[in-house]
Amino acid sequence: MFLDIFIMWLVLYYAIRLVRSNTKTIQIFKGILLVIIIDGIAKFLGLKTVQYLTDMFINWGFLAIIIIFQPEIRSLLERLGKTNVFSRITTLTGNEKENLVDQIVTATMLLSKDQTGALICIEQNHPLDDFIATGTKLNSDVTAELLTSIFVTSTPLHDGAVIIQGDKIACASAYFPPTNLELPGRYGARHRAAIGISEITDAVTIVVSEETGAVSITEGGKIISVNRRQLRDYLLRVICGEETEVHGSGRKLNNEKPREVIIDDTQELKKEGKTGNTGVLSRLAIKKQEAKEQKPEKIEAEEVIPAEQPEVIISDEDENMKKLDEEAAEIKLPHKKARPAPSYPENDSVKRFEKERQHEEELREKEEAIRQEQLAQKKAAEEAERRRKAAEEAERQRKAAEETERKRKAAEEAKRLEAEARVQEPVEAAPRMTPEQVRAAREAAYQKFSSARKPEVKKESESSQNQDSQFDTTKLDLGELMGMNEDLDKTFEVIDSIDSKKKSSKTSDDSSQQEGGSRK
Ligand SMILES: Nc1ncnc2c1ncn2[C@@H]1O[C@H](COP(=O)(O)OP(=O)(O)OP(=O)(O)O)[C@@H](O)[C@H]1O
After folding, report:
1. I want to staple 346 with a disulfide (CB 3.0 to 4.6 A). Which of 37, 80, 142, 351 is the partner?
2. Are residues 193 and 101 in the same domain?
């Protein structure tokens, strides 16, 4: 019986812790409570339909809870499986815890002074192994030197968060899901990631702004700006469970961890013109303002001195702080280099959207490149065709010019030959006989000459005289005949030369005509 009650108590204890460690779970739990209350009221007032609905919800609620809390149940079982029921931090001794706090505070203040952005997450009861898996595992001692070195912007590990498990730096470059809360513009991706992790786990996260050097703490979905002293007090309380005093303020911090630390972002939102729809933080800030008026002794977010403001030195006798100052003075941060683009993984939906956008952009660029290439090819083809035609036209014109020239020369040559022929004409015109006729005449002349010498052949010469009276050689003496014979020889030579020239000019004409024909 006692064991039974003990087990039930354990189950309830862890269930409540699980619900409390996650703001989303709290909301769902509140919803379930509301349904149970409505069911009670319906029963009391006898509202049968409402009761039927709420009964249905409660009857099936077990299944619904399993479905709704599936990730949380899984994480609880995982946690049980790892037998890490007690957080690693609880296993440290008092001195180790204090040293851990000092190292974290020193590193944070150095980073703040140097305006080097940082995100340091300290694991509490909720294991952060899933987030450690997104980063680079280190498993090294927590020292101010190592912490500051990690966040120096020229190192590959500076992007993302450092997770501290117990007294070890479990990893660097871890990715946290950012919050979806509406926040003032001064909070960027780093602050969103810090609030995001505090919404889904009970971890405490320290953020150092790269822009202003301001130090903030996030826990339970809330963010608060702190100075060095406040940071130390806060960490001592969270890690060592110490109750500390804010020196000089005359006020004590709550015994419990300040789970609802909030920042007054109402002023900021008003400045940005977002007065209509103020976020959760601003509404909480207003509530807190009201509470403050009632309980002035409680420390409020609005009262926290922002880290960028000159720090108020409250006590000269704080030896711990002096020691921290001395330690910090020994650590020198390297010269900051230009900040490279973040390489940590982005929020899933944003990443997907960005990927799709890039893909579309690439497709558009490819299509445009193909279109441009086609256009260029078309232009090149057109240009080539234009050049080919121009070359053809130039060739045609060249040939035409050559042809004209050739014809001109041929005509000139013909003219020249004609002129030459005309010069030879008187010699050619004299006989006005064909060579056969001349040969016949010559023969006849010879016959006549012979018959004059021999009377027996006289009759034959008479008959030939009748044929051609022009060549009446009977009355010619030998001298005359010989002279005539020489004349005839000259005439034949002239005729032969004219014939050969005519022939040669005719063959050149023919060949040119043939060339013209084949070109056509
Ligand atoms: N989801 C995330 N998880 C872990 N680290 C992140 C995440 N988002 C951003 N960071 C870190 O924050 C850096 C970008 O910070 P950003 O300047 O956008 O934030 P910020 O809140 O304006 O801080 P700061 O005041 O330092 O500029 C990144 O380089 C990365 O190191």
Report:
1. 351
2. yes
